[in-house]
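Homework help board

Subject: predicted structure for assignment chain

Our instructor gave us this sequence and asked us to write out the predicted structure in token form, then describe one feature. I got the tokens but I'm not sure how to describe them. Can anyone check?
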Amino acid sequence: MKAFFVYICVPANNCNTEKKFANLVNYITTLVMAERIKEKTSQSITNNKGFSLSISQRILVGFAILIFFFMFNATFSLITLRNSATITQTSYNVVNPSLEEIRDFQLMVTQSRMYTISWINSRTNEEDKDSLRKIHNDYPEFKDNLMQLQAKWENKQLARTLDLIFADFEKLQKIQKEEIMNKIVEFEDYEEGEFMTIAIASEIVENQIFPLYKKIITKLEQIAQQKKKETEASQKELLTSIQQQQVITIVLAILSVMVGLIAYFITRRNIVDPIKYINNVFVKLGTGELPSEQNYPFKNDEIGEMADSADKLVTGLRETSRFAENIGKGNYQASFEPLSNNDVLGNALLEMRDNLAKVAEEDRRRNWSTTGLALFGELVGKKATDLKNLSDLIISNLVKYVEANQGGLFIVEDIDEHDQDEPFMSLASCYAWDSKKYLEQKVYRGDGLTGQAWQEGSTIRLTEIPHDYVMITSGLGESNPSSLLIVPLKLNEEVFGVVELASFNVFEDYEVKFVENIAESIASAIASVKTTERTNRLLDESTMMTEQMKSQEEEMRQNMEELQATQESTEKAQYESREVNELLELTHLVIKTDTRFFITSANELTEAKLHYEAAELKGMAIEHVFESYDKVEYAKARLAKGHKYSEFMYLNTKSEDKVMVKVNAAAIKNEKGKVQHYLFLLNDISGINAEIV
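My token output:
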């Protein structure tokens, strides 16, 4: 095969195409026969040694030749394309541009000669002179471009010839510049006096410039012809490569078809029968039947892998069936592993299990709440008359039912019973709670978390408990709870107490909702028990009062006799008191005021002395009666404190007369000691005013 590869890759072989094709066919036929002999030998060895090729290996043996042919074709095509690309690139980037530059160089040399002659013979043709100057100016750049192409020429002889041409042309330009362009410059240089200069210049052109021109043109033509030949050779070589590629492609296509057919027959013989068996397995699976286990003699190849995959599928379906049965029996904890991440049935069953487990959990929670509501409804529905026993019963059952670790029940106390101005709560009952901190302590509205729940009337749930708030204690030690739940006991927007629970487990939403639901029932029970206790207390007080009244009836009878005697003496005293009052009415000015010191009444003597009518005096402030405002204010302060008052003062009469009186005032109280009014007794001492002064 190596010799064949070398033979094909020699592009310069001069043998004809038909002969080469015949040799290729003969050689490839020999290779195919060798491969078949090798295959038979391999089969014999396999039968003797128990070794078998896998399906992929068998296919690989068949297709390896095809791959080799394709790789060979690709390699040869790549080499051909690379050679063609190199030829095309060289022709495009070097040969053709070089030929164009040589042609441009020929044109430049020819134009240089023409413009030189024009410079000498035509004194007015400035355009040709400018063109000659431009050739001199553009030549260095033109030379650089051509030298860049020259560096890529493979023919070094041509490169040296081009160097000689550059030297000759530069010599020609030097003669042009020094002997013609520099000497024949001005218009006067063309006059008759300068005829000798023109003649010399013409001679230089004839003897020096023309020979150099011919020499340069001849050499440039030689280079141009050589580059033209290189272009033709490149095109011919490119065409030859393409023809060789066509021949090789046809030969390899024929060989590929032959090898493909051989591989097809071998593959069909080794795969169809096993596939039929596996197909039977999947047909049964398609009808919902799980095939029984069979020991079919599979080879250690891809067919065996397919069978193994089928066995895994059957095993997986058995596991799936078992898992579905467990779900049907309500065992939502049954484990199951999908066959893969893309196992649609397995993942669907897992999702169904999770959904059913979720529904079952919701049912469990709903049943739990319903059972709890019924339980606590029965507890609080009992005719409990003792608030302490009811509290113990509620908190102990509640802590156990919600599986908390501690609990406390706080009840709002009645203000009247405890003679308090501000309502407060006390710990009515607790479960595994440190009640010492509440024995001498009252929880007021807004005091701590418990008081805050009371004040807001809303539930407080915490999972981050302050370290010193509450500790769950056991015989092995103590620790902070993980969750705290405080629920107010509300009935008709009135809070009757607060229940507080602590647990190592976080309270779930349904548990919180449950406690909130039974809180109203507990509040109703507390209100009912309180009403019952209040009624019993009133009945006890009524019974006690009845007994006291019976014992007091005798005392009252005796007292009535005493009262009768006392009444007689009182009537006598009242008579004497009336006589005294009448005497005071006649001899003193009497003024009565309310508790705010506004006059409510005055006797006739007062009206006469002050020259006011009774209607005018009624409602008048007492300070308007007297002349000294400070003394009146002092008197009011003394009387308001319960003291008596006595002082000499002048009256403010309506006629503005000066009347001095001795004032005696006191507060008149009822039987409960509450001030009813103030009484002012004024003694007119105007007659003895001079003596007092």
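Reply (TA_rk): Your tokens look well-formed. For the description, you could write something like this. The longest helix spans residues 195-286. That's the kind of observation they're looking for.
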